[in-house]
Amino acid sequence: MISYLKSSEMALKKVKGNIERMFDKNLTDLVRGIRNNKENEAKYISQCMEDIKQELRQDNLPVKSNAIAKLTYLQMLGYDISWAGFNIIEVMSSNKFTLKRIGYLAASQSFHCDSELLMLTTNMIRKELNSHNQYEAGLALTSLSCYISMDLARDLSHDILTLLSSTKPYIRKKAVLMMYKVFLKYPEALRPAFPRLKEKLEDPDPGVQSAAVNVVCELARKNPKNYLSLAPVFFKLMTTSTNNWMLIKIIKLFGALTPLEPRLGKKLIEPLTNLIHSTSAMSLLYECINTVIAVLISISSGMPNHAASIQLCVQKLRILIEDSDQNLKYLGLLAMSKILKTHPKSVQAHKDLILQCLEDKDESIRLRALDLLYGMVSKKNLMEIVKKLMVHMDKAEGTVYRDELLSKIILICSQNNYQFITNFEWYITVLVELAQMEFGSKQGHVIGAQLMDVCIRVQAIRAFAVAEMAQLLEVYASTSQFTIMQEVLYAAAWLTGEFASELENQEQTLRNMLKYKSLPQHIESVFIHNILKLFAHIMNRYESEGHLDLILDLADVILAKLSESVKSGELEVQERASTVIVIINIVKEEVIATGNSRLMDTTHVGNPQDLFAKELLTLFNGELNPVAPKAQKKVPVPEGLDLDAWINEPIETTSESEDSDQDNTENLFVKSDKFGYGEQSEKYQYQPTEEDIKKSRETRKYEQQNNPHYLKGSTLERRENSSNGNDVIENIPVAELNLNIPSLKLIGQKRSDKYLDLHKEKKDKKKSKKKKKHRKSESSSDDNADAGPMVEVKQVLELPEGATLSDSDSDHHRLDDPHRALDIDLDLPPIGDVLPNKKEVAESEKPLKKEKKKAKRKNEKDKEKKAVKQKPEKRKKEKVENLLKFDKENDEDTAKEDRKPKKTKKDKKKSKEKEKDAKTKTKKSASGYEEALGISTPTKENYQS
Question: Residue 905 has what DSSP assignment?
Fold first, then answer.
C-alpha cells in the first residue's frame, strides 16, 4: 500500500511539472519578447531574470535546463550569469544528452580558468570522457577547451591522452586538438604525449591527420628543435596531400625548421617550386614564397639555381601586387620586403611597380610601399626616389599620411649615418624645401634635428648650411604670413649662432633674428641665447677695426628688443633675456671706457689679445660632437644624491599672509584678465583724465600724418571730391615701399632639381664609358656612383664613462605570452628525474664535508707557517702543540668512520627495497620520463625512426 502511494505521488509530481512547463517561457518566447519590448528592454529582461530565478529553485531538471538556456542567451547580450554557476553544473550532470548539451554550452560561455567552481567538475568531466557515447565525450572536450585550468589539465591529461587511441576518428580529432590546450596550461604533459602525437600524423583519417599537423605547427612556435625529427613525415605529407590548408601549415613548419637544418632546405626547393608553378590558391602561393625565402637564407653554401628561384618568387609576387584584391596586394608587398633584405637587386628592378602603389587608395598599402622604398635606396637612385616622393607629397591627402611620408624621406636619406648621400648640399636644400611646405606638418622637430645633426657631423657642409639657415631667418622676418615650421626656426637660430664664423653677413642675420615674433618658449630662448653669440662675433670684428660706435648702436637695438622678452610669462625666456641684458650692459660700459681712454691717449694702439670681445667669445668655445641617443639615461646617479628631495625647503606660509600677498604676487609677470564685480570693480577700471585724452589725440594725428596709407583731408573735401568720380582716384597719394622680399619660386621647379640634373649628366657620361670598358662586378657600380666628392661624416658618439651603444632598455621576453611555457627541450629528462632524493643528497654531501675539514686544516697550517717565519723563537712550541691537536682530531675521525659503515649498509638495504617497490608501480621509458602502468609507449628506436 505504501509503495502504491509513493508511485502515485511521483506520477502526480511529473504531471504537475509537465503542466508547469506548458506555461513557462522557453528561449524562443524570450527572444520574441525582447524584440517586442525594444523601448523597455532593460525592464523586460529584469522581469525575465526574476522568472528564471524562480524556475531554478524548482526540482524539475528540464525546467532548470530551460532556464539555463535562457541565461545563456542573456549572457550573449552582456548580462552576468556567474551567480548561476551551481545550477549550470547541475544541468551538466544530467543523464539526458539534450539537457547535458545546454549545461556544457552555458559552462563554455560563463566559466573561465580562474573560476572557483571548476574543482567540482573534475570527476564529472572524467566520467564524460570515458563514456561509450562519442558525442558525450566530444561535448565534454569541446566545452573543456574554453575554461581548462592548470589543475584540470594536470588531473585530466591522462584521460585525454587515452582518447588518442580511440577507435572513433571523431574522438581522436577532438582529443588531439584538446591536447594543445592541455600543453599550454600543463607543459609537462608534452613529454608523455609526444610519441602519441607523432603517431597521429600518419592516422588513416584525414581530419585527425590535419588536427595533428595544426597542433605540431603551433607547438613549433617556441622551440622548433624538438620537432626536427618529424621532418620525413611532414615531407611525405607535403608531397602526397591535396589539402591546401594542411599544406600551408606544413610549409610554415618547414620555414621554422630550415634554419636549424640547412640540408633540409636543399630538398625542399624542388617541391616548393613545383607548388608555386602549379597551385592556383593565393594563400598557399604566399606561404610557399615565404618558405623559399627562409630556405635560401638558411643555405649558407648557396645553390647553383637559387637566383632562378628568387626570380620566380619575385615574378609571382608581382602578380599578387598587380591584383585588384587589396589583401593580396598587401601580402605581396610584405613578402617583397623579406626578399629585399637578402636579394635587393632582384627587387630594385620592380621599383616602378612599388612607386605606383603610392597612388593606392588604401593607406596601409602606401605605407608598406614606403617601407619597401626604404630598403631599395642606393647611391644611384637616392635622388630620383626622393624627388618622386616629394612630388607625391604635394598631391597626397591626409596629414597623418603626409607626416609619415615626410619622416620616411628623412629616414631614407639618413640611414646608416648618411651612407647613400653623395651630395650634402642637395640634402640641405631638400630639408629646407620640406620645411617651407605649407601643410601644417608636425614633423618640424625631425627636420630641425636633421639640420643640426648634418652640420655637426659633416664639417665641409657647414658654410652652405649656415647660409641656408640665414636665408630662412630672412624669409621669416620679412614675410607677414608664417610659412616655415617653427621647430625649423629652432635649428636655424642655433646653427647661425653656433657656427657664426661661417656667415658672410653676420649683422644682417642678427637684425633678422631680432625681428622674432611670438614663439614657443624653447624656441624664443634659443633665439635670445644665439643673439648673444652673434653679437660677440660682430663685436670682435668691429672692435678690431675700431668701430666702437657701431657696437654701441647694435647693443642698444638688442636691449630694446630683449626688454620686451623680460616681460614674458615664460620663466626660461625671462632668465635668458635678463642674463643677456646684464652681459650687454657690461659690454657697453667696457666699450665706453675703452673709447674714452683712446680719446685721452691718441698714441694708444689696441693689442688684439686685449680685446674684450675675445673674453666674451671664450664663453662659447669648445668642439661639438654628436651625442648618442639615451646618453643622459646612461649617466649613473651619484651615491647619496636624492633627485626627489628639496634643494631648498618650501617656506611655510600662514593663511593670513597668503591673503595679504595674493594681490601683489598673482599678476607679477602676466597682465591679469580678472575683473571684479560691484563695488570692487572700480579698482580694476582705468579712467583717463583730460590730459591723457589730449595726448592720445595728438599721437593719433601724428601717426595719421606719417602713415602713407591714410587718406588725409577733411570730410568736406572728401565729399566734394567724391562727386568727380575718376578725379578722386588720381588724387590718391602713392608712396613707394622698399621691402626686402625674397624672390618667389615656382612650384614646379625646386632648387634641389639642379643637383638631380647634374647627377643624371654624370650617369650618362659613365654609361658612355661603360660601352668602351667592361666592369668586373655589378657590386662595384654602386660604390663608384658618387655624385660629388667624398665627405667625412663624424661617427664618434659622446657617451658617459662605462656606457656602451649596445645597452638597451627594451625587454624582449614577454611574460604574458601564452606560448612561453612550451619552450622546453624534449631531449632532456624532466626535473623530477634529475633531482636526487634527500638521502642521496646527504650521502653525496659526506665526502664534501671531509674535503672542507681537510681544507681548513691546510689553511691553519699555512697560517702557522707564516706566523713561524715572523716569530722564530716560538716555532718549536707551536709545532708540538699543533701535532698534538692533529693527532687528537685524527683519532676522533677514525672512530667516527669506524661507526659509519654499519649505518650505510642499513641505508643501502632500505633504498634497494624502496626502488623495487617503485619499479612495480611505475616503469621508466627509454626517453627518460615516467609513466603509469597500462600506457604503452614506443621504444627509443621507434621514436627516432
Answer: H
CA 448/CA 526 separation, integer angstroms: 13
State the DSSP string of 668-688.
SSS-------GGGGGGG----
Cα Rg of the chain (Å, integer): 44
Angle at 506 between CA 500 and CA 508, to 5 degrees: 145
**Cβ distance 400 to 433 under 8 Å?**
no
Alpha-carbon distance values, 442 to 59, 486, 780 (Å):
69, 10, 40
Q: Say if CB 373 and CB 389 are below 8 A apart.
A: yes
Report which of 175, 125, 181 is spatially closest to residue 153, judged by C-alpha positions: 181
- Predicted pLDDT of residue 810: 46
930 bridge partner residues:
924
Of the candidates 84, 128, 92, 136, the one whose C-alpha atom is nearest the C-alpha of residue 110 is 84
Please report, for residues 50, 54, 75, the alpha-carbon distance to residue 82 in angstroms, rounded to integers and kept in the order given: 15, 17, 9
CA proximity to 169, closest of 215, 213, 138, 125: 138
Q: Whose CA is closest to 366, among 355, 377, 378? A: 355
Nearest to 444 by CA among 454, 462, 432, 427: 432
Q: What is the 3-state secondary structure (H, E, C) of 333-346?
A: HHHHHHHHHHCHHH
Q: What is the pLDDT of residue 927?
A: 38
C-alpha cell of residue 85: 554557476
Cβ neighbours of 73 (radius 10 Å):
15
Residue 138 identity: G
Run of H or E residues at 606: none
Give the separation between CA 568 and CA 571, rounded to whole angstroms.
8
Pair 308, 329: CB distance under 8 Å: no
Give the separation between CA 369 and CA 337, rounded to whole angstroms: 9
Who contacts 598 (Cβ-Cβ below 8 Å, separation ≥6)?
Answer: 604, 606
The three grid cell numbers given for residue 71, joined into one nine-digit string? 541565461
What Cα–Cα distance (Å) separates residue 807 from each residue in 635, 803, 812?
12, 7, 13
Q: Is 464 exposed, middle or buried (0-12, 13-18, 19+ CB in 10 A)?
A: middle
- Regions in the chain scoring below 70 on pLDDT: 1-24, 299-305, 438-441, 480-484, 598-610, 653-687, 708-750, 753-791, 796-821, 826-854, 856, 858-859, 861-945
840 is written with which cell numbers? 642521496
Q: Which helix (H) or strand (E) holds 746?
A: none
Tell me the pLDDT of the chain averaged across its residues: 76
- Looking at 669-752, list the stretches that DSSP marks H as alpha helix, in order from N- to C-terminal side: 690-706, 715-722, 726-731
| 118-130 CB burial, b ≥16 within 10 A, e <16 | beebeeebbebbe
Q: Name the region of 847 (left: φ>0; alpha: ψ -120 to 50; beta: rest).
A: alpha
Query: Who contacts 671 (Cβ-Cβ below 8 Å, separation ≥6)?
Result: none
Cα atoms in the 13 Å half-sphere on the side-chain side of 304: 0
**pLDDT score recorded for residue 709:** 65
Which DSSP helix (H) or strand (E) runs through 931? strand 930-932
Q: For residue 763, what are the CA distances in angstroms to 379, 771, 779? A: 12, 13, 16
Torsion over CA of 340, 341, 344 and 346, rounded to 10 degrees?
A: -50
pLDDT for residue 906 = 45
Alpha-carbon span 334 to 341, nearest angstrom: 12
Predicted confidence at residue 582, as pLDDT, reads: 93
Question: What values do phi and psi take at 343, rounded to 5?
Answer: -130, 75
User: What are the φ/ψ torsions at residue 923 (nearest 5 degrees)?
Assistant: -130, 145
Q: What is the DSSP letter of 359?
A: G
- 611: burial class by Cβ within 10 Å (0-12, 13-18, 19+)? middle
Q: Look-up: residue for cell 654624370? A: 762
Grid cell 625542399 — which residue?
268
DSSP state of 836: P
Residue 923, helix vs strand vs coil: strand
